[in-house]
Amino acid sequence: MHTAVNQPATLPVSLAAYDSAMQRQPPSPQDTSKAESCERDARRAHWEQVYASKAIAAVSWYQPSAAQSLALIRSVAPPPAATIIDVGGGASVLVDQLLDAGYRTPTVLDVAAGALAAAQLRLGERATQVHWLQSDILEAPLEPAAYDLWHDRAAFHFLTDPAQRARYRCQLLRSLRPGGHLVLACFATDGPSRCSGLPVVRYDAASLATELGEGFLPLQEASGDHVTPSGAIQRFLYMVFRHQPR
Ligand SMILES: C[S@@+](CC[C@H](N)C(=O)[O-])C[C@H]1O[C@@H](n2cnc3c(N)ncnc32)[C@H](O)[C@@H]1O
User: Fold this and answer.
1) Can you say whether the dihedral through the CA atoms of 144, 150, 153, 156 is positive or negative?
2) Residue 115: CB within 6 Å of ligand 1?
3) pLDDT of amino acid 17
4) Is there a contact between 237 and 74 (Cβ–Cβ < 8 Å)?
5) Which of 32, 65, 145, 187 would bridge 177 by S-S if both were Cys, CB 3.0 to 4.6 A apart?
6) How many Å lie between the centroid of ligand 1 and the Cα of residue 90?
7) Strands 84-87 and 107-110, bridge-based pairing
8) SS3 content of the chain, % helix, strand, coil (to 5)
9) 98, 74 Cβ separation under 8 angstroms
10) With 0-12 CB in 10 A as exposed, 13-18 as middle and 19+ as buried, what is 215?
């Protein structure tokens, strides 16, 4: 519990004084975990609301085919044996295309239950061939070394706080097997600065490699122009990394 400092005990504490006291005192672990849990709730509420209010083919990131992701995935983790997780997969058709390509039991993780439900509805009977995980990637209970390939298109770039990116990297390091691959697609430096009303971090190949740090060897990079349902063009950066622990 924080108390305002330098205030006469008998006077009510003004908001400004409270703010200034908060700035001087480091947050306790309880405050930090409360703040993180509020942040997670807000993130989930945001995305649930997006999927509840828009048709799947109307969201700006909708693509009728995830061909560029699939080609990169196939180039480093051929079917059928590779275990794949699509992080922040939403209602993307990538999972349909992974099944078509012969991958067994891909995992789709997303914070929004509504997105997963839409993908399940589209897949019908085939939805039983997929492992669905409704969770925030920053706290998802992922098994160690569980995946041969980790794919993320347009989820990582929403992590604007370095502490969130550090947490994401921990999850990645733990659950991507050594020698496994990461296919990451983010807005490029000349891409949009916001998506779905939220700020994003834009990357070039060097800054993305720096962000991931040691242990991720860049293998391929490509740019991709995404055409939104309203006809705008968004420049993406796609990169493939190998997880190479030192
Ligand atoms: C821009 S959409 C991209 C969806 C999909 N990857 C695609 O390419 O169509 C971002 C997705 O990431 C999900 N997301 C955002 N933050 C997340 C988090 N912290 N953990 C898990 N999913 C998250 C959202 O619910 C949303 O489905």
Assistant:
1) positive
2) yes
3) 40
4) no
5) 145
6) 5
7) parallel
8) 40, 25, 35
9) no
10) middle
pLDDT digits (tens, 9 = 90+) for 183-207: 999 999 999 999 999 999 999 999 9
Pick from 47, 187, 195 the residue to mutate for probing ligand 1's pocket: most ligand atoms within 8 Å of its CB: 47
Could you tell me the domains of the chain? 56-243 (3.40.50.150)
Choose among 221, 237, 241: nearest CA to 181. Answer: 241
* Averaged pLDDT score across all residues of the chain: 90
112 lines ligand 1 (CB under 6 A): yes
pLDDT in tens, 144-185: 999 999 999 999 999 999 999 999 999 999 999 999 999 999
CA distance 105 to 81: 10
pLDDT at 127 over 50: yes
Which residue stretches of the chain are H helix?
Answer: 15-24, 29-53, 67-76, 94-101, 113-123, 162-175, 205-212
Residues of the chain above pLDDT 70, percent: 88
Q: H/E/C letters for each residue in 207-230?
A: HHHHHHCCCEEEEEEEEEEEECCC
Residue 199 tokens, joined: 């700020």
Residue 51 CA to ligand 1 centre (angstroms)? 11
Report residue 73 as tokens.
Answer: 């995935």
